[in-house]
Amino acid sequence: MGPYRPADGTARPAGPSAGGRRPVGEVTRGTTNPNRLRRVDNWIAHRCAGLLRDAAEPLVVDLGYGATPVTAVELRRRLAAAVRPDVRVVGLEIDPVRVAAAQPVADPPGLSFRRGGFELAGLRPVLVRAFNVLRQYDESEVAGAWRTMTAGLAPGGVLVEGTCDEVGRLAGWLLIDRTGPRTLTLSARLSTLDRPAALAERLPKALIHHNVPGTGVHALVRALDDGWRDAAPYATFGPRQRWIRAVGAVRAAGWPVVDPTRWRLGEITVPWSAVADGPPAPA
Fold this sequence. Notes:
Keywords: Methyltransferase, Transferase. By secondary structure, the chain is an alpha/beta fold.
């Protein structure tokens, strides 16, 4: 879902879904690749495992899965293996052609596909993953989309919203609940990372236009980049050791970096309050 426009420049209409609800949102470009969302999926399996295990109904929505359903298939497989085998994943797309094309890989009740948008097709999921969706919207639409999605969550549910590059080597995402964003995570495939500044191109939509001097997110990316540069001697021991030293330097400089067990995986997570120079959190 995104501000995709056909050649004539008009927005594609979103008619009623099979359940009678009108999907909220617009059709995205739909580009995707196998393993593109592996990094965020593994983080979800770690960070949200307790939430899913405690849920009476472990329902997860993959919102805007794109032109092919591969990322929804992978999400279901990863969560079933790492968290609980009875997890249910529902892939939602506004484009009925994409929904129909996904049906051959559906495996009810564990994996299904239906038409829907930010309103979540009336579902009450414990978790929503919306990746590479809001990146295609105007920043002014972000807070409203957050409000719509989080309003549909089950009690205690969360939204994971972010973006990544075409092959999933660079990514950034927010953990959001009904009160607003809670954390920002930046993640990189260390074996191909030139410098952390490259992550600025994959910031979530709420932050990407705020990566300018004087903002929290700009200072964070710069601190990480500086830490990576200063840790260059550790490159002898591999990019993982260099990254761990760089993130450690960021925390030593006073940043409230959390979850050090994930540093070795090429991740850095900070509270939203450390970078909240973007639009206001949804009320």
